[in-house]
């Protein structure tokens, strides 16, 4: 009997060991590991198992709330094959919730040890459901970042401190002006506005307005249904980037504003996408202006750079220059606009490497404009209605393109401009482009073999290894 009992005990211990081995489990991760997972994996599901009130008082960005007491009844809201990071306040409830998920066949469960308490001790952001954004600003310290939870805030906000206002998600954090007044007024230097929807200003009012300021940033917002989208009056060194601006009179207005950067914005369905008056030395690049009445308008503005923008299907002029000089317009695409380029009393501007494709009118002049350059002394622009030939196959037309009175592109491109590595402008980077560069290697403009078409990489004025590297780095690429 003793022998039989020993066998039974050993068998039970063995089966118990197997049971432990096969038991569903989850992984524990530190707060530091959790932060790394969140930053590196956008598909990670973040599950908050605290209560609604705890969640509203501060949570990890875009976390899904399912209180631990409700989890077993709401498992259908989660996908068993997703990676799920679970957290609570201290790590206790999240451990219980993680085991529930594991027991129900969820495969990749990570329990964040020590919870949100330790997360906050590390200075990591938590997003708060404020009763009022303005009250939060009033109570904030200079230099503080306010992380705003998803929700619609019906208010008008005045930012009168140097701080950052950061929305949890630009599609779900809404400041709504309810059709009256300016929605967000910036009244201090060094303010950052990002990740918000700002909408419904009053008539003749603005989504975001700033005056007499410097070093402010408006990034990654939706600016919708405002009479004026963003107004910068007498501001400098501001950044307006990666915003979606729709439905209004002006998208972005610069007045008496210098040394600002306007980049990566999408501006649609406005009267004027970008308007610049009495402003200089601004960089306007890589914006998408489509289906507006006018694209970019300059008046009494100089020394601005307009670079790599896309102007499409604007129903009047894509770009206007009125009494504006010394502006550089490079590598923009003008396609299917009523008028691509309009000039009035504007001289000493440079237009080069732009693509003007299938516009109703490629250019228009209200009043004669003189001394504009339509090339860089060796290459000009692509005009889809150019009918000249290219007898030496260098990608440059043999005859000039007459833009208008006293305005001539002497070196029109035979194909759309793409990248500088396409030296011969045949819409592909191949051995012919490399040969052109290496054939004049180490030459400068004073050398008879120097080819300015091959001088494609800064610093310019010498064909060197940087030109070769740029060409070979794009080898075998094609347009489009």
Describe the structure.
The chain is an alpha/beta fold and 480 residues long. The protein has three domains: 23-121, 3-Layer(aba) Sandwich (Oxidized Rhodanese, domain 1), CATH 3.40.250.10; 134-409, Pectate Lyase C-like, CATH 2.160.20; 431-473, Dockerin domain (Type 1 dockerin domain), CATH 1.10.1330. Helix content is 16%, strand content 32%. The strands form four sheets. It has a 19-stranded parallel β-sheet that branches.
Number of strands: 36
Helix content: 10-25%
Radius of gyration computed on alpha carbons: 30 Å
Our count of helices gives 8
Overall residue-averaged pLDDT value: 94
CATH architecture of the largest domain: 3 Solenoid
Q: End-to-end span in angstroms?
A: 85 Å
Specify the biggest β-sheet.
Answer: 19 strands, parallel
Features:
ten-stranded parallel sheet, Oxidized Rhodanese, domain 1, 3 domains, Type 1 dockerin domain, Pectate Lyase C-like, 36 strands, 480 residues, 19-stranded parallel sheet, alpha/beta
Summarize the structure.
Helix content is 16%, strand content 32%.
SSE layout and pairings?
Blueprint: H1 2-22, E1 27-29, H2 31-40, E2 45-48, H3 52-56, E3 64-65, E4 83-87, H4 92-103, E5 108-112, H5 115-121, H6 133-139, E6 145-148, E7 151-154, E8 157-159, E9 164-167, E10 173-176, E11 184-186, E12 192-194, E13 197-199, E14 206-211, E15 217-219, E16 222-224, E17 228-233, E18 239-241, E19 244-255, E20 261-263, E21 266-277, E22 283-285, E23 288-290, E24 294-299, E25 305-307, E26 310-312, E27 317-322, E28 328-330, E29 333-335, E30 339-344, E31 350-352, E32 355-357, E33 361-367, E34 382-383, E35 401-404, E36 407-409, H7 431-438, H8 465-473
Helix pairs in contact: 7-8
């Amino acid at each position: 009997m003793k022998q039989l009992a020993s066998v039974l005990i050993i068998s039970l211990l063995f089966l118990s060991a197997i049971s432990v081995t096969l038991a569903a489990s989850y992984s524990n991760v530190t707060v530091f590991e959790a932060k790394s997972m969140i930053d590196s994996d956008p598909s990670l599901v973040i599950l908050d198992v605290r209560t609604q009130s705890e969640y509203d008082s501060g949570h990890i960005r875009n976390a899904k709330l399912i209180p631990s007491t409700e989890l077993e009844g709401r498992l259908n809201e989660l996908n068993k094959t997703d990676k799920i990071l679970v957290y609570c306040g201290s790590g206790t409830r999240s451990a219980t919730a993680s085991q529930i998920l594991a027991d129900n066949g969820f495969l990749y469960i990570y329990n964040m040890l020590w919870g949100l308490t330790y997360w906050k001790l590390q200075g990591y952001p938590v997003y708060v459901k404020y009763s009022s954004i303005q009250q939060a600003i009033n109570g904030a310290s200079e230099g503080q970042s306010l992380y705003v939870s998803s929700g619609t805030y019906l208010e008008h906000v005045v930012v009168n401190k140097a701080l950052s206002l950061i929305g949890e998600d630009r599609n779900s954090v809404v400041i709504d002006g309810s059709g009256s007044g300016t929605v967000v007024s910036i009244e201090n230097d060094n303010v950052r506005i990002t990740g918000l929807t700002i909408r419904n200003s009053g008539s003749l009012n603005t989504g975001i307005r700033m005056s007499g300021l410097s070093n402010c940033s408006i990034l990654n917002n939706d600016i919708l249904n405002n009479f004026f989208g963003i107004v910068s009056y007498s501001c400098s060194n501001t950044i307006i980037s990666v915003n979606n601006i729709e439905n209004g009179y002006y998208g972005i207005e610069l007045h008496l504003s210098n040394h600002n950067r306007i980049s990566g914005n999408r501006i649609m369905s406005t009267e004027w996408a970008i308007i610049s008056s009495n402003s200089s030395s601004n960089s306007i690049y890589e914006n998408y202006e489509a289906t507006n009445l006018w694209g970019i308008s300059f008046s009494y503005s100089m020394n601005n750079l307009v670079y790599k923008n896309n102007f499409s299907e604007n129903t009047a002029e894509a770009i206007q220059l009125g009494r504006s000089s010394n502006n550089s317009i490079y590598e923009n695409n003008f396609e299917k606009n009523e008028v691509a380029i309009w000039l009035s009393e504007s001289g000493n501007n440079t237009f080069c490497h732009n693509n003007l494709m299938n516009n109703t009118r490629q250019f228009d002049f209200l009043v004669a404009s003189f001394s504009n350059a339509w090339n860089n002394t060796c290459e000009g622009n692509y005009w889809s209605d150019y009918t000249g030939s290219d007898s030496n196959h260098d990608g440059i037309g043999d005859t000039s393109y007459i833009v208008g009175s006293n305005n001539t592109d002497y070196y029109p491109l035979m194909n759309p401009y793409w990248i500088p590595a396409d030296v011969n402008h045949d819409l592909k980077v191949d051995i012919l482009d490399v040969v052109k560069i290496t054939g004049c290697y180490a030459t400068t403009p004073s050398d008879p073999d120097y080819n300015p078409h091959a001088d494609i990489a800064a610093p310019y004025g010498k064909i060197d290894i940087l030109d070769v590297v740029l060409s070979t780095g794009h080898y075998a690429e094609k347009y489009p």
